[in-house]
Write a structure and sequence with these properties.
The protein is 0% helix and 46% strand.
Length: 110
């Protein structure tokens, strides 16, 4: 009889993903592409990579108002954060308050 594969991944669309990435270097609403014009939201942030940023605050808002949803400090050596589970939920849009001269890369869905 022998062993048979339980899943046929070849030729099937089992590996689809809606994961996207964007990079930012200054304060403002997070856009779908670096230098783009379309705001992200609603979305779930699943990955955060920063280097040279003194501090970053992410708000679930169009401005730096309301509650901070995420805050971190990144050194010159950089840091990768893989957010577990479904990620950090932003119900409206994402505003980033960035201090420093480096960059932040966000992975998101939505």
């Amino acid at each position: 009889v022998g062993l048979r594969p339980h899943l046929n991944l070849i030729g099937e669309n089992n590996m689809s993903s809606d994961q996207k990435f964007t990079t930012l270097t200054a304060d403002g609403q997070v856009k779908t592409a670096s230098g783009g014009s379309t705001n992200i939201g609603p979305a779930r942030v699943t990955y955060i990579q920063g280097t040279g940023i003194t501090n970053i605050k992410l708000y679930d808002a169009a401005t730096a108002s309301g509650s901070i949803v995420f805050e971190a400090t990144f050194g010159d050596e950089g840091l990768d954060i893989y957010v577990p589970g479904n990620g950090i939920r932003f119900e409206t849009t994402i505003y980033a308050d960035v201090t420093g001269t480096g960059s932040i890369t966000l992975g998101y869905t939505g």
